[in-house]
Amino acid sequence: MHVSHVTQGRNAGLGLALVSAFAFGGSGVAAKPLIEAGLDPLHVVWLRVAGAALIMLPVAWRHRALVLRRPALLLGFGLLSVAGVQTLYFAAISRIPVGVAILVEFLGPALLLGWVRFVQRKPVTRAAAVGVVLAVGGMASVVEIWSGLAFDALGLLLAFGAAVCQVSYFVLADHGSQGDDAPDPVAVIAYGLLVGAVALTLVSRPWGMNWSVLAGQAALGERDVPAWILLGWVVLVATVVAYLTGVLAVRRLSPQIAGVVACLEAVVGTVFAWVLLGEHLALPQIVGGVLVLAGAFVAQTAKPDSAHAAEPVIESIPEPVAEPADARERV
Q1: Average pLDDT, stretch 187-201?
Q2: Coil, strand, or helix at residue 205?
Q3: Residue 220 β-bridge partners
Q4: For position 309, what pLDDT does the model report?
Q5: 3-class DSSP state for residue 219?
Q6: How far apart are CA 179 and CA 187, in angstroms?
Q7: Of 10, 48, 77, 321, which sits most exposed with the smallest number of CB within 10 A?
Q8: Cα 169 from Cα 258, distance rounded (Å)
Q9: Residue 223 forms beta bridges with which residues?
């Protein structure tokens, strides 16, 4: 019975990771037309995060006791895992192709593996390590590193910054997931989005945004579509659904395994950019994408550590529990 429960939890985690990869992968292809229509990348990020935060506001209110219990966790998730990743990624796709940006961003799993092994001093599975090696090799092919980088250097640097911030997404999503006092993952997402929205409001100054763009059309490849439809996809699917399924996947697997499985996002994003935006990649980029996909597949064969495998599947958002005044924990 216990083995069956573990298997079900693992399969659910893999399914959630795939949904998250698909949802995140569609963000760039919907956001880039908005940027090209006249919106600043920072304004697109603000619209994305603020819209998602508004949707998740009831969840944040329901779990308001979490603010005193885990303030550092919520701040870190909001500033790095939400605002940092999205700002740097959207700035990158304004300078380099979506497929290239997203593949460079997924150096994150390699950095994550190094964090787990050398900072947290935890063992990592051989399959996860092999998956990362394949994925990193694929990314080197995508950017054609042998020719001195074939794309805008600043755009690649911004994408690498997004990769660094992406590590925090998997580390913080997993933080405190064990024990009876584990924070609800949906609440962490809600507050992360709120913190990210506040931070981005100060940085992006949305009151100076060209709001008229949202009432017009944006070029999605060879066709024009209403800008508000693209924004709706970015907010609802590429943010709310993506973060919810992604964090829940980390809780059922482990950060390093979920991180490499998430490399499928790179393949999804590249295919979307090819089909919808006409951003064709050369043969080396295609081969690199295949290697990224192979790395994600190999990582799926890794067994999660016993601490994660034994965790129950979260079926619903639990009711908030009143916390004593001194119930505070360090992150």
Answers
A1: 93
A2: coil
A3: 223
A4: 42
A5: strand
A6: 17
A7: 321
A8: 11
A9: 220
Tell whether the torsion through CA atoms of 140, 146, 152 and 156 is positive or negative: positive
Say what the pLDDT of residue 60 is.
93
- Prediction pTM value: 0.72
Q: Which two tokens stand for residue 293?
A: 């996909």
142-182: per-residue pLDDT in tens? 666 665 555 688 888 898 898 888 878 777 876 655 556 77
As a whole number of angstroms, the distance between CA 208 and CA 212 comes to: 11
Give the residues across from 226 on adjacent strands: 217
Residues 6+ apart with CB under 8 A from 272: 25, 26, 28, 29, 98
pLDDT of 326 reads 41
Helices (H), the chain: 2-25, 27-36, 41-62, 66-69, 71-76, 85-93, 98-105, 108-114, 126-142, 153-174, 185-204, 227-232, 242-252, 255-261, 264-272, 283-300, 306-309
Q: At 227, list the tokens.
A: 């800008």
How far apart CA 195 and CA 190 sit, in angstroms, is 9
Question: Tell me, what's the pLDDT at 177?
Answer: 57
DSSP one-letter code for 38: T
pLDDT at 315: 37
3-class SS of residue 81? helix
Q: Report percent pLDDT > 70 for the chain.
A: 76
Residue with tokens 């092994």: 117
